[in-house]
Every structure is written in structure tokens, then in C-alpha cells.
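Researcher: Batch entry, complex prediction.
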Amino acid sequence: MELDPVLLSRIQFGFVVSFHIIFPSFTIGLAAWLATIEGMRLATGAAIYRRVFDFWLKIFALSFAMGVVSGIVMAFQFGTNWSVLSARTGAIQGPLLGYESFTAFMLEATFFGVMLLGRDRVPSWFYFLSCCMVSLGTMFSSFWILCNNTWMQVPLGHAVVDGRIVPQDWWAITTGPIVRIRWPHMLFAAFLTSGMSIIATGAWHMLRGRHLAEARVMLRWGLGLVAALIPLQLWIGHLTGDYVHQYQPAKFAAIEARWQTEQPASEVLIGLPDPRARKNLFALVVPKLGSFIASGTWDSREVGLDTFPVRDRPPVVIPFFTFRIMVGMGLIMLAVSWLGVLLLWRGRLERARWFLWAAFASFPSGFVAVLCGWFTAEVGRQPWVVYGLLRTRDAVTPSLTTRYVAVSLAAYVAVYAIIYAFGLFYIYRLLRDGPADEAASHDGLTPGRPAAVALPSGAE
Amino acid sequence: MEPSSLALFWAGVIVVAILMYVILDGFDLGIGILFGTTNDEALRDEMVAAIAPVWDGNETWLIVVGTSLFAAFPTAYAVFLPAFYVPVLLLLLGLIFRGVAFEFRHAGARMLWNWGFFIGSTVAAFVQGAAVGTMIRGIPVAGGQYAGGAFEWLAPLPMLCGVGLVLGYALLGAGWLVLKCEGALREWARRRIPWLAIAVLAVLAVAFYETLDERERIATDLEDRSWGLIFPAIGLAAMAGVFLGVRWRRDALPFVMTVLFFVAAFLTLAVLFWPYMIPYRITVANAAAPDASLAFLFWGAVVVLPVIAVYTIAIYWLFRGKLIKR
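Model: C-alpha cells for the complex:
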């Protein structure tokens, strides 16, 4: 594989979008969590919920700011590096992404400000409403992104006129059968990501013997939410696999590392795909299970990569492993949450330090699952950028040279390394310090500065 | 080919959004530039405080420009961004540094973020000016895609426009400081306004001369549009107002007159470029997405743009008057 503008542009896009997705997937879940906790405070009047709320609000504000900063870069990546894609599909992708940034802005301009700074200035029902609207806003933001990406995975509702791809049926594009599966899959992934972070933070403070009351709330709610959501997510994930099986058979074969068509098909649980020899090394194989996973019967015929011309085959190694890591993370979440609920029910959770350590250590599981899920979806779609319509190779900006993409990639890596090192350090510091003992007052802060809530402003 | 009314609506949205961006983010980028010309931490803190409530709202207009351009004029978007590959990269990195420097300054590593604030603002301003200069010279296009090199924007005219915009934004920023502040900072800023104004005029005069030198590249029929000279005339009058504002010690006048100057300069460029979106190759009508796309996002714009406008007005109203020192 040689370093050409196409490959470097893919690496650059993958790099900036991977850094970006960490924050939205965290904040979508946190927004819902904050709305839930505020609802509980309103219902019970218990002060503990206020302390937990204020603690997570700071983390939310800083993560939101990081997400916005990295999101601006995304809005320009399509044009700088993928200008043929922009020109040919802009009539569809442009309005979808336009709605996304409009949604995000509506949110930031209105209810987000109330949420950060309006606690003492609006009635409590209105404050709760603002939390719910922010949560809804983050979810709708992700809806537009998923519409756009789903259209790239399985294009629907368009026509090709003079080489340009134009919209014909916006309903099919925005409410098609696949969006209805993939959007919930992403939402649940975001909820689980935040849920695991909340569990881990609770476990951390519990292990250190600090902020015990708040840690208890985090552990209970986090474990309960994850335990309830994870079976649903595994089922929705299965439905997502069904759409891949039906609409993107080459991606499905790549995920399964199925080099030859089989009937009945076996399942490679784990192994090392060798793209040159077109076989799997050190493979652990279960006969007939592949047919069952793909179609629910034990003897179906499942297509292998040999069915597709070489130029239409996706890479195998990355989707194969990222898919298995994602599923593995799901199983870790299942184990941690159900075991935790069991311990909680038996009243032994707080003394089970081994479990608290395990829960603390599993904090990245959601983030890893989200990233690996996206890698599976995006790498598995190759060699297409819009499946069946436009090849990635043909979508890149024609005037780009290897040197300029290499320079821009190096610049992004260097700047992100600095910014994210500091940003993550500040988030870490907030998590470590834990909830304030008494509800902090936000007086004297200025709106329009999301992170102002989170950062100490010693100089002022 | 005449643009459809939806295409005209979206072109109008983009024109207004660019103008809003230039004026609003212009003054806070300008303050970022002035920030680097003093070592006095007290002055610096006050400068930051003068824009803290508004800067990220100001930056939103750039996102409105970017997303509207992609959605409504994908052909122009697909030419414009590759043509400015390196400047866009520098702009984004500059804005990122400026943005986080704002938030991180108080949390440690102050030197790093002070430099980030100054350099980020200066680079962002410079590349915006360079882009304008490149557009005046015209952008090479073949087969609907950008057909020039990566450094079209390194020619003398774009460089002059880049320097000019850095100085122009600094002038706007100084005007804002005079408007919003009192005491030492107001005096500090007021002393700089005449020098900045003279420098802006000098750079623009050289840029104008350079443009005449390259006038065969400009495809618009300017003979037909001599009425457009009214705008440069308004611009010169506005500059005179800036000087008078300093002389009469009127706090609002220099800023208001600099804004008028920017509006006049903007309209001068509009006269130069119309009907082209990518000078002088792709017109508004040719760049527009099909009406099915423009109509779909129209409803989003009808709801969101008034909200942005109300939000902007509300924030400025809330923080009207002189900055109160804590």
C-alpha cells in the first residue's frame, strides 16, 4: 500500500473523526443522564441528586466544548479532501449535515445556556425542561449524522442526473428502514458509554473512600441503566448485522473472514485472517454457527469474498478484529452490569473491592466499542465511499498532492495532541476531585463560555 | 442562466452570514492580535474579559457559512475548500488554538495559551485576507474542480490582503476596546487607532495598485458598474470618521465607523464578484444545488436563523455598556 493522497486523506479523516466521536458519544449519554438526575431531584427533592448533577454538569460542559471544537474541523474536511464527493453528493449530504449543525446551534444558543447558568434564574420546572431539551437536541443532532452516514452505506431515495446525485425522496433518506435501526444503535452506544463512565467514576470514589453517598448514587443508577440497556443493544446490534447481511454482503463476508462461499457456513470465532493466502490462521471455528448467525437456520448458503471481483472487496483484517472487539466490549458491559446488580441486590456491592476495581477498569469499554463499531462500518464499506455509487478512490480532491496531505495530517496530529492532552487532563482532574460538598454557585460567570463553568478562573 | 429564487435566498443567507462573521469575529480576532503587542497581564486580562461573553457566538457565523455553502452550493464548496487547502487548515488550527486558549488560560501553562491566543488570532485573520486576495485574482477551475496549485494564495496580492485584514481586524478590535473599556486600556487602544488606520489605508493603496497590475485577470465588466465606486468612497469617508472619533474622544465612533468601512469594503467586493460565486468561473446559478435540496433545508433556516439573530442581539444587549471590573 503506497502513501497517496487517497490513503492519507482517509487516515486524516479517520483521525479527526475518531477524536471527534469520543465527545459526542459521551455527551449524548451525559445529557440524558443529567436530565434523569434532575428529574429525580425534582420528584424527590433530595439534595444528593443536586450534588451529583452539578458534578457531572462540569464534565458535560467541558466535553461539549471539546466536541464543538473538533466538530468544526469535520464541517470542512468534506470539502478540503473529498471535493468530488462534496460536488457529486452535496445535494443530499449538504442539507443533512446542515440540519445537524442547525440543531446543534439551536441547542447551544438556547437551552444549553440555561442549563449551565440559569439554575438560579429560572423556575425549576423550566430548568428541568431545558435539561430535557438539551438531551433531545443531542439525540437529534446524532439523528442527522446517522441519516447521512446511512445514506452513504445504503443509498436510497436519490436519482442520478447528469452525473450528479440528487435527492428525490427525503422521507426515504431520513426515515428509511436502516436509519431506524442504526440511529437507535448509536444512541444506545452513547448511553452505554456514559453509563460505564458513571459506574467507573462511582467505583473509583468508592475505592478511595470519598464522596460515598454520591458514589453510591452513581453506581446504582449506572449499573441499573447499563444492565437494562445492554440486552437491548445486543439485540439492536444483531438487527444492524441483518441489514449488513442483506444490503452489504461483501462487508458481511469481510467481518466473518469468510473467504469462500460455504453451505452450511461455519463461524470463525477468532483467528488471524491472512489476506494474501485468503485463509485464516490459528482459527477457532464452529461448524454451522455461521449460517445460524447470518440467517437463523443451520444450513443456509452464505456468500464468501470469492463471490466478489477483487476490486469490490473490502479489507478483511480491520473489520474482522474491530467487530470482535466491539462485541467483546458489549460482553464486558453485560458481565459488569449484571454482576454489579446482583451484588447490589445481595447488599455486597460496597465490600466487593475486586468488583469495584473491575468496574473502574472497564471505564473505556464504551468508548472502545463505539470506535470499533464505526471502524467496522466504515472500513467494511470500502472500496466505496457511497456504497455502489462512488468509489473512495474517485472521491478525493483531484488537486491534492501527497505532500500537502502529509503536512496537514502531521499538523492535525500535533495540534490535537496538545489540545487533547490538556483537555483530557482537565476532565481527569474534575473526575478525580469528585463532587463538591456543597452545591457550588455559578454566580459571576459569563454565558457563551461553556467551559467557564468547569475551569477554575483563578486570575479573575 | 438565472438563479432560482431559492438559490438567491441561500446566496443572501451566505452573504449576510459572512458579513456578520467578519464584523463580529473580526473584532475579537483583532483583540487577539492586539493582545500580542503588550506584555501587561492586567491589560491582557481586561482584553479577554471584553470579548469573553460573545466570542464563541461570533464564531458560530463561520459554521453557518460553511454548512450553508456545502448544502446550498456544493459545487462552490467543492472548489473553494481545495483551492484554500493550506489556508483552511491554518484557519481551523488557528481558531482551535484561539478557542481553547480562552478557556485554558486560567488553568495553567499560561505562557503557552497566551501565545496560542495571539498567534491563533493572527493566523486566522491573515489567511482570511489571503483568501480574499486570491479570489480577486480569480480561481482556476477545470471540469467543476479546482485546477490550481496549493500555493495560489502565496502571490503578492493575497499576501497584501492578508496583512491588510490583520491590521483591519486589529483596528476593529481597538475600536471595540475603546467602546467597552475605561481607564488605561481605553487610552492604550485609542492611541493605536490612528496608526492602525493609516497602516490599513497604506496597505490597501498598495493592494489596489497591485490589482490594477493584474486587471486582465478580472473577468467582470467593470465599465458597466462604475456606480459601484460609491462603496470605496463610503469606505474612505468612514475612515475619516474613525480619525474624528479619536480626535473628539467619542468612544463609540471609531468602532462604528470601522464597521461601516468593513461593510463598504465588503460591498465593493460584491460588486466586483457578482454573479460569480467562484470568481470568475462558477456563477451563483451554476453552483446551486437542485431546488429539492434548497427547499428541504429552507425550513431549517427559517427557524434557526431568526433564533441565531435573537440570541446574538440578546447577548449583546445583556452585556451592553462599559465592562465592569470585578
